[in-house]
Design goal:
- The chain is 31% helix and 18% strand.
- It is an alpha/beta fold and 426 residues long.
- It has a single domain, classed as TIM Barrel.
- Strands 1-2-3-4-5-6-7-8-9-10 form a 10-stranded mixed sheet. A 3-stranded mixed sheet has the order 13-14-15.
- The N and C termini lie far apart (71 Å).
- It binds iron/sulfur cluster.
- Iron/sulfur cluster binds next to loops.
- Iron/sulfur cluster (SF4) binds next to loops.
């Protein structure tokens, strides 16, 4: 392979820095995509067996309506769980859409439709308008959700004209209460919150839509307490509500992006209190075979085994999981697998590719030649997240003019003095 096929002009010092960029990792395939051929036990998502036409139903009151062929996404994320569908056999034709609309019309339990693909905004405006207008005729539909990465990766395409079309079409034939439109987007790192994205969000909000975001928990991209909290709060500052932190789906070629569930749970636990409830998303795994989202941290109940040693807490991330519709899956295993030889070879290749050692840290279950589990790599030590350290990590001023992190009552006398002084000085 060429020393640097992506940027032959890149200076040596620059290389490692650029190769560690979270947007680079999400957007550009690297040799790592070919290095771990065994994903382990998990099968792929099973959408075909729960579909009628372009409608896919996993929950009682809502369907995903695939109006765009999977190849039409605005961003070909390297970690995409639909990457396997990026071929010509997945085109959504008009008949499929007609069948889906027919089904949605007949099933009166459905009050919510997720319009998706690929990317719902990467199809012709004519098709989008048609679908929205047809949905506007169905009285039991109350919510339309548009799944798109366009505001993030192609913000200039979010024009007032497009938003006006969506607004009008979604309620063109509505009788009774309006159908409410949500934009569902996908940001994994605060570096994606650019000024152009902020401007696109402002335009979307101006037209009366709400924007919600799902983030995928990704090793090498956002597997870091500060990165995640920063990403969630910066989204919230501009009117984007985080709603899911998703465990990376196990697919061939992307196992180096998967982080152990235990690590994600620990981050979530330590976000409690430091982020408002409406900023903190639910941490979920989307299990295969149409099992739906499994909450990985459903309550304040401590599932972190605090009596155990730090190393034990970073488990191999396998567990029995319970789906929302009461199915039980034994030995759900979040991480990918590799033999020790494959692992060592992969790290060597990626060190060369990145230009630095010690930053490519796949979290993999090592197995022997017969496939038996040996151990998990990179059992990272847990960060020590006591209060003051967390405050510093999140860049809170811990002693600015003697102000406390919480509870002004403790210094109320001092505050009174300052308050009255300021009033009399005026
Ligand atoms: S935006 Fe979503 S659907 Fe599109 S490539 Fe990325 S993960 Fe896949």
């Amino acid at each position: 392979m060429d020393e640097d096929p992506f940027n032959p002009q890149m200076l040596l010092g620059e290389k490692a820095e650029k190769r560690l960029d979270p947007i680079f990792w999400q957007s550009v395939p690297t040799p790592a995509n070919l290095l771990f051929p065994d994903t382990g036990l998990e099968a792929a998502m099973d959408e075909g067996s729960r579909s009628y036409g372009a409608a896919y139903q996993r929950y009682p009151n809502r369907v995903a309506l695939f109006i765009a062929q999977n190849t039409s996404c605005a961003s070909y994320c390297v970690h995409c769980q639909r990457a396997k569908s990026l071929d010509s056999t997945v085109e959504v034709n008009n008949i499929e859409i007609e069948k889906a609309l027919f089904y949605i019309n007949y099933n009166k339990n459905i009050d919510e439709v997720l319009i998706t693909g690929g990317d719902a905004l990467r199809i012709s405006e004519k098709r989008l308008k048609y679908v929205l207008e047809e949905l506007s005729k169905i009285q039991h539909i109350r919510v339309l959700r548009i799944a798109t990465r366009v505001p993030v990766v192609l913000p200039f395409a979010i024009t007032d004209k497009l938003l006006e079309t969506i607004n009008k079409s979604a309620n063109k034939h509505t009788e009774g209460p309006d159908k409410y439109v949500y934009f569902m987007t996908h940001i994994n790192h605060y570096k994606e919150i650019t000024q152009d994205f902020v401007d696109a969000i402002k335009r979307i909000r101006k037209h009366g839509f709400t924007i919600r975001n799902q983030t995928v928990f990704l090793n090498h991209i956002n597997d870091n307490y500060r990165t995640l909290t920063e990403t969630f709060r910066r989204m919230f500052w501009i009117g984007v509500h985080p709603y899911y932190l998703m465990q990376c789906h196990k697919e061939k070629g992307i196992v180096h992006f998967i982080s152990p569930i235990q690590i994600g749970k620990i981050y979530m636990k330590h976000m409690q209190g430091w982020l408002s409830g409406i900023v903190k998303p639910d941490y979920v795994a989307n299990v295969e075979g149409g099992g739906g989202k499994v909450l990985l941290m459903p309550s304040g109940h401590d599932t972190l085994n605090i009596e155990k040693t730090i190393d034990d807490k970073i488990s191999e991330s396998y567990a029995t999981v319970y789906t929302w519709d009461e199915r039980t899956m034994k030995d759900y295993e979040a991480l990918g697998r590799a033999t020790r030889k494959e692992y060592r070879e992969a790290v060597k290749i990626m060190n060369k590719f990145i230009g630095r050692k010690g930053v490519f840290l796949p979290k993999i279950i090592l197995v022997d030649e017969k496939g038996n589990r040996i151990e998990t790599t990179n059992r990272t030590r847990l960060p020590n997240l006591e209060k003051l350290r967390t405050a510093h990590l999140l860049e809170y001023k811990t002693n600015y003019k003697g102000m406390p992190i919480t509870n002004p009552y403790k210094i109320s006398k001092k505050l009174d003095k300052m308050f009255y002084k300021e009033k009399t000085d005026k």
